[in-house]
């Protein structure tokens, strides 16, 4: 049960001073709370014996008031320390979780659902933070404070009465062990269901246009209703066990009260304790009610925190598929790109996605990559991003294996525009500046001009300051592509990778963009994969892929002379263009 505290040992060591102060003051406050009942008991005994005076009564009142004020300030400090630690660990865990996600490769996100990751970053981290705040409070109150109260009852009143009153308490320990196991298992299932619900909501919101277009609103509502019903059932299963905690404790504490009161009256009549002792004892007995409840809360919160921490650790302990080597090689610039007999297979694939691919590209050259859908064009480009572990063969940049170059250095050379344009819920300006944070308006406009987007700015409500909406929903497909292109152009990267990044623009706009790239990227390396051959006619080298194998290679004219797939595709596109013009 307490493994969660052991696994959070790094945090307690880091915040040792905070927790030492907080726990010492918490214990001190508990000890001071024992004194007012004893003073009240003494006062009652003096009243019964008739020895009470105005001076002694004033003394008792002043002492109790001073103690209450002292307890007030001590309580304020320990609550600030303990619950401040709860907020701190939540911030640290969330930052660590997010940083870990940023270091993971695409294969990790293929294996883990977005909704489940969100559940771990919210509900699970919140449950762990409660463990180091409220959990530490219940741990101290259910152990140290309970022990102190029992010792006070024994030493200050009567051991016989104390032993009789605590007879029902072992029943609580037995019940808590049983309830704790059930809470752990059921809470894990409830959190998994919450992750499934998150996934469903994300899919429905992002695909709402498709859902409406196919009139599937009622089906989607039914699917969401079913999954929320599953979340409800699993959380109710947790609540059913949780509901047993308080009645069980109340039953045992009630039995303690009956025993304490009955046996206490008997001892008063036998003159073994005074009436003031009995009053103090019953006040102490009332003080152990919270520690009893704290035992239940402790079991509950530790089991929830343990289950949540297991889920968080399951994510953060996953190692990235691609990591920097211990002693990387320093490369100043990518003067040459080489692939020698590269064979690659995705982790989830059963066949090779690239097979014996060899090519070389000098700085300043342009490589065109074409082929049928699914032929491996994107896979070939992603090899340079080093998102997956390299397969067999060698990928060299400036003569250095890509595995020996740090990922930060490698990615600093790249400007990448993927097939699916990802825009953030910010302005057009901020999306473009994502490629170069310190870019001024002149540099932004230069990138926009290169992407042939300047004429579209006038159609936007606020120009560069227009909010694009989530994932660029307020822009057309062609506009999103050109904003993505502007973002890549603004940093003037050494290697520009365009993965079918011109598919949503018309032929005339494409021609302008290609011409801008040729004129402004002299001396820079460019790789372009496309289905439209007009985009790579100017390339220094063109490769045709089929099922991950290079079947044709050469310049535009050389490939036309081969009369292969490239020539066939070129002729077909020329006919389509002529018909479109007519």
Automatic annotation (TrEMBL):
It comes from the Bacteria. Residues 337-572 form the ABC transporter domain. GO terms for cellular component: plasma membrane. Residues 20-304 form the ABC transmembrane type-1 domain. Its main location: membrane. InterPro entries: AAA+_ATPase, ABC1_TM_dom, ABC1_TM_sf, ABC_transporter-like_ATP-bd, ABC_transporter-like_CS, P-loop_NTPase, Type_1_exporter. CDD domains: ABC_6TM_TmrB_like. Keywords: ATP-binding, Cell membrane, Membrane, Nucleotide-binding, Transmembrane, Transmembrane helix, Transport. It is found in: Cell membrane. One of its GO terms (molecular function) is ATP hydrolysis activity. Pfam families: ABC_membrane, ABC_tran. It is a multi-pass membrane protein. The chain crosses the membrane at residues 20-40, 60-79, 127-155, 161-179, 249-269, 281-301. This is Multidrug ABC transporter ATP-binding protein. The lineage of its organism: Bacteria, Bacillati, Bacillota, Bacilli, Bacillales.
